Amino acid sequence: MKHTATVALMLTLGVAGVYAQQIPVNMTFSGDGTPSVIDLKHPNTSTSEENLAGSGTQGPFTFRLVRASMAAPQPSTTCSGPTKVYFPNVAGAGLFRFFDGSLLMVNLTDGGDCIDFAANQAQCTLTFQVTGGTGRFQGATGVLTFTEASTPILSDASSNPVFFTETGEFKGTISRGGNSRP
């Protein structure tokens, strides 16, 4: 009887180690955004990139994002008004680099930019699927929501904004397998 109870306890503890560890994510950032020299070659889009730095529940990090947005505004139920236009994003990916050397990779799955010309600012909401990583994020999965305010600080000779300040946050949950390092 004692042997059976011991085996049952060992199996229970072993199985618990295999289940994914849920890690809450709450990180703030600031940085810059600009048109990118990278061309994702999606029809009727323009590619931009952002270089951000911040900190939060996972420690200090940098984040580089490359994404393609529709070149023409599209209708939106969340971005409307006489001074607002919406540009959905169609593709993109980002890479977090944490100060312990761990990397976390994400793919853009949804979202876009609501530009308010009267406020001279854009509100961006993006959804990312976590696709893995290195170090403490090896085998990571999850979903992160990115919200940001973007303000132009430099325009080209045709008065098109080309350089922006970026501030915002990431929220969500990352799951790691029970065999991953903490």
Structure description:
This protein has 182 residues and is mainly β. The chain is built from one helix and eight strands; from the N terminus they run αββββββββ. It has an eight-stranded antiparallel barrel with strand order 1-2-3-4-5-6-7-8. The chain is globular and about 50 Å long. The two termini are 36 Å apart. The model is unreliable at 5-17 (pLDDT under 50).
Secondary structure blueprint with pairings:
Elements: H1 2-18, E1 21-35, E2 45-56, E3 61-70, E4 84-98, E5 103-116, E6 121-133, E7 141-155, E8 161-176
Antiparallel strand pairs: 1-2, 1-8, 2-3, 3-4, 4-5, 5-6, 6-7, 7-8
Form type? globular
Q: Poorly predicted ranges (pLDDT <50, ≥5 residues)?
A: 5-17
Query: Which strand order does the major sheet show?
Result: 1-2-3-4-5-6-7-8
Radius of gyration: 20 Å
Strand content: over 45%
Which features would summarize this protein structure in a list?
mainly beta; 8-stranded antiparallel β-barrel; 1 helix
Please summarize what this structure is.
This protein is mostly beta strands. It contains one helix and eight strands, in the order αββββββββ. The protein has one helix at 2-18; strands at residues 21-35, 45-56, 61-70, 84-98, 103-116, 121-133, 141-155, 161-176.
